[in-house]
Amino acid sequence: MLHIVDDEEIIRDSLTWLAQSRAIAATAYASGAEFLAAMEQAGDFDPQGECILLDVRMPDQSGVALFDTLKNRGITRRRPVIFLTGHGDVPMAVDMLKNGAFDFFEKPFNDNQLMDRVLEALQASLATGEQDAVRARLEALSTREREVLDLILAGKMNKIIADELGISMRTVEVHRAHIFDKMNVKTAVELARLLK
Q: Rounded to an integer, what distance in angstroms lies between the CA atom of residue 111 and that of residue 118?
C-alpha cells in the first residue's frame, strides 16, 4: 500500500493514478493530521508492504514535522518514507536521508524513477516485516528452547544435545518439535535458512 500525503489534490490524484498504473494500491491524504488519524485506526500491516510519499511543504504541518512524529511513533520502521518537494535543496535532502528517509524527489520528477523507488521501498518494507516476524517468533521461545535451537543450528544431533544439556533425548525431541512449530519450519535446514 502506498500512502500519499500531499495538500494538493491534483498531485494526490496524479500520484494515485500513477501508482495504480503500476498495480500499486494507493490511498491519498490531504494533510498530516488526516494521515495520522488513518494510521491510528489502521489494522494489520499490509502484506504487500507499505510506503509513504510525503510532501515537504504543507500548510498545517510540514512533511518534515510529520516525518518526525511518524518516526517517534515507530511508524517509519516498516513504512519507508519518500519525500516529495517543489522547494527542496541539497542540504535538506541530505538531512532527511540522514534522519532515516528512504529517498527524496524534487518536483517535477520522473514518473518511472519515482515508481521504481516506491517498489524498492515496498520490498524493503516487506523485508523489515519478515525480520520483525522472525524476531517475534524467536522471542516466543523459552530459554531451554533457545539453548536447543542454538545446538540444532550448530548441527548437533539430538543425542549430543541431550548429553550437553543433561536432559533426555525425548525431551530434546519435544523441544525440537516446539521450536519447529513456533518458528513455522519443518526441517533444521529451513530453520537455518530462516535465521541466517
A: 11
User: Residue 103: beta bridge partners?
Assistant: 82
- Specify the amino acid at residue 153: L
Question: pTM above 0.90?
Answer: no
Confidence of residue 99 (pLDDT cuts 50, 70, 90): confident
The DSSP output letter for 77 is: G
pLDDT at 142 over 70: yes
Write out the H or E segment, with its range, that includes residue 28: strand 26-29
CB 6 within 8 A of CB 15: yes
- What are the two backbone dihedrals, phi and then psi, of residue 52, each rounded to the nearest 5 degrees? -120, 125
* Mean pLDDT value across the chain: 89
Neighbours of 173 (CB within 10 A): 14
The backbone torsions φ and ψ at residue 12, rounded to the nearest 5 degrees and listed phi first, read -60, -45
With pLDDT > 70 as the criterion, what percentage of the chain qualifies?
Answer: 96
Residue 141 · residue 179 · CB < 8 Å: yes
CA count, 13 A, side-chain hemisphere, 68 = 6
Q: Select from 41, 53, 67 the least CA-distant residue to 7.
A: 53
Residue 93 has pLDDT above 80, yes or no: no
In the structure grid, which three cell numbers stand for residue 137, read together? 517468533
